[in-house]
Amino acid sequence: VIHDRVAHDYLKDFQSEHDLYLKTTAMVSFLASWASDAPTLLERLEQLWAAFYSRGFVELGDLRLAQAWIRDLLVVGYDFPDLRLGKIMKVDAPQGVKARSEF
Questions:
Q1: Contact call for residues 93 and 99 (beta carbons, < 8 A)
Q2: Which residues make Cβ contacts (< 8 Å) with residue 54, sequence separation at least 6?
Q3: Are the CB atoms for 70 and 46 separated by under 8 Å?
Q4: Main-chain phi, psi angles of 23, to 5 degrees
Q5: Could you report the per-residue pLDDT of 7-33, keeping only the tens digit for each?
Q6: Helices 41-54 and 60-75 sit at what angle, rounded to 10 degrees?
């Protein structure tokens, strides 16, 4: 078997992944303490991406791409999940399977 390998420039690889190596700890710390009182998941997503941008975790182009993705989800009729815990945690039993409350 012959493999055609792509020549790598390890410095160029590191430079393209620089933020991954140097900002990960700060981003995880930020996420661990981040909170939002926005009433919808859509608003929270937008707030989080704006916070990523304002702290230098992502570039303006990344923020705009995330906003475009959210708009596209709305255009195709995506129904964002309700953030009320009871609605998120409610799982209907498959047809023919008794729910716990029926035992």
A1: yes
A2: none
A3: yes
A4: -115, -5
A5: 778 888 788 788 878 899 999 999 999
A6: 170
d(CA 44, CA 67): 12
**Joined tokens for residue 83:** 């953030």
Backbone φ and ψ of 86, nearest 5°:
-60, -40
pTM, entire model: 0.67
Rounded Cα distance, 67 and 18, in Å: 24
User: Each residue of 64-81: pLDDT tens digit?
Assistant: 999 999 999 999 999 998
User: Counting every residue, how long is the chain?
Assistant: 103
Give CA–CA dist 75/89, Å, rounded.
Answer: 27
Give residue 48's identity as a one-letter amino acid code.
L
Tokens 């182009």, located at residue: 61
**Tokens coding 43:** 């608003």
